[in-house]
Amino acid sequence: LVWLLVLSLAWLGPALGGEDEDEEVMEEEEKEKKEEEVLSDEIKEEDNVLVLHEHNFARALSEHQLLLVEFCECPHCGQGCGQGQVWDREYWQGGEAMAECGKDTPLATEFGITSYPTLKLFRDGNRTHPLAYTGRLDSQGIVRWMQRRAGPSATLLQDTDTSAAFINSQDLVVIGFFKDLKGEAAQAFFEVAAEMVETTFGVAEAAELFQEYGLSADTVSLFKKFDEKQTNFPVDPERGLDTAELTRLLRVHSLQLVMEFTKETSNEIFSAKIPHHMLLFLNKSSPDQLSLQDDFRAAATGFRGEVRWPHGRDKEGGFGTPQPQCPLFPAQVLFVVVDVTGHGADVLPFFGMTTADAPTLRLVRMENNRKYQMEQDNFSDSAIRTFIQAVLDGKVKPHLLSAEPPEDWDTRPVKVLVGKTFEQVAFDETKNVFVKFYAPWCAHCQAMAAAWEELAERYKDREDIVIAEMDSTANELENITIHGYPTLHYFPAGPGRKMVEYKSARDVETFSKFLENGGMLPEEPPVSEGRGQPSCPGLSPAPDGSGDGSCRM
Question: Which residue numbers delimit the Thioredoxin domain (predicted)?
């Protein structure tokens, strides 16, 4: 029996006394009753979920082979941690979980809980090595993740009939062919299968199956009903099978050669972690624009991300651990069609575009969100290939967004910067410039707006200090990447184009102390990230699950 649990970490603080003595007595009795309940190892259930604390945790481990435990700190995971709200909603939709929360308990310390909510799986009563939850943050994802760990991660295929039926059962399946299912390579394959819960895995050791699919040695094969029908990844007999690289290979080759950006495919597109995305923006209601997909697809075949094997070996040389001096993967490009009148309309502001700009092409370097644009759109497959290669070779400069500067941008206490004016202001060698990079929709930015205005008023008559701000959703800089909001950078006067990131408290007095000390603060205990200094997400298609409430760009 697999239980989905919520770990209650609540300290039961003393009840506040009232003026009425009888009320005090009643509150004291209620307090004692609750303390007795907490000290007991009795395990209570709320809506089919076990509620745990430090005194009944050991009992729960001993009574259940698999325990999925959620550690929370805010009431019902809805106050103070935005990701908790998402998780809790999903649990309730599935009728499986709720959250009763607290913080700073011995259990949180024991299991290294630093962000909330956190899920951990405990197996066979093992308290020292819980498994961190790595699945999707929704009820369906949690169920799939648990099912994969509760049972075998891959189906054993014993003959050609069962293997053929298995392959035909899905649009995409993965089969590991191993001559020894207890060997290290097979065990590594099972680990990958346990993590990739969205994909169906099979495993085979019968000699007739090796022969049926043209294999002679241990191999991981990807079978698809689209594009290449069978893609083989041989296992190197010396280096074995590297789980991280196999996972990446499978994610890359599981995607269609050309993806369409939709609500259903967006998670696949970004979780594959392909370093470059080539985007064709078009209006699918236009037959002329739809026809552009043929050349776009033809160009994609050259950038699939073929494997470059270590030490100059060819693809038959085997799949093992990559060597630093010889990358296992060359640059890869994922080709994506974006319908500007469909789901893709939501991302147009990120590119500074409107529906009228279609059809057009953009290449995005995912590590820093740098965007590249052809000088003139040419939709032939040869032109697309040439453009991509030029970007990969560093011969094309990024296309940077910039709003127009307001007429009064430098007359306000807070100077309003845009991409076009940033260099001349921030790197003025006669000024110390303190800049807030923000997003208009960011709640944390809005919360500190008053403090930033007050700071600017305090220093508006100082010739050597400039307090400024820039909307980073409408302006981009070539050498500065903003990952979350608000981000504060200090640019000291003098040569050298120096930049100091400010990471302390966001109040006027601390800001002022920082400025008066030339962009430095006295050594103080660090502020706990995600609590004293929360950040809003940057523009990102999918949250990364980080504990500080931020999604990284």
Answer: 391-520
